[in-house]
Write a structure and sequence with these properties.
16 strands, 3-stranded antiparallel β-sheet, 50% strand, 5-stranded antiparallel β-sheet, mainly beta, 0% helix
């Protein structure tokens, strides 16, 4: 399974459309700015799959979105993972939970934080870390297939950005 994004042909741009498989089953999809359609393609091993775009009213099932943000942390979540970012500590990951096994992958008492960016600053003759400064988060994509966030922070006086995406499946 792979998320596929395709530019829409002119006759389907900025119109209400549905995506169908070869058995005419409606496939969940997301249309971005009326120009591009994204969907989770189901392709067999050593094979191919065919999909059709048709004009029509999409039957949108309201799904719980995979993003929650507060002043001090934000959460990205799908059916398999829950990731909690600590915004006070530079957007480091304070929890990475695999739901199927209920296993936590972040060690709480480690000297270094999960996802911490760190470097030696020669002119200051010392190491600095992203955990020393707070970070900001911006939601850049949130649809039934993918959720992406942009994390902005600083290491000493140097800015950094990270994009983190979590996908369905």
């Amino acid at each position: 399974n792979e998320i596929v994004s395709v530019s829409l042909p002119e006759k389907f741009k900025n119109k209400k459309i549905i995506l169908l498989d070869t058995a005419n089953n409606i496939i969940p999809s997301s249309v971005e700015k009326g120009q591009k359609i994204s969907f989770l393609a189901q392709v067999p091993s050593f094979g191919y799959a065919t999909y059709k775009i048709r004009l029509g009213e999409p039957k949108i099932k309201e799904e719980r979105r995979g993003f929650v943000s507060g002043e001090n942390e934000c959460i990205l979540e799908n059916e398999g993972y829950k990731i909690v970012f600590d915004l006070k500590k530079g957007g480091t990951i304070k929890s990475l939970l695999v739901k199927k096994s209920n296993k936590e992958y972040v060690k709480k008492d480690s000297q270094f934080l999960f996802g911490e960016l760190r470097g030696y600053f020669y002119e200051e003759n010392q190491f600095h870390s992203s955990k020393e400064n707070p970070a900001e988060v911006t939601l850049i994509k949130d649809n039934p297939l993918e959720t992406s966030i942009l994390i902005r922070g600083k290491i000493a006086s140097q800015p950094f950005t990270q994009i983190v995406t979590i996908s369905k499946g």
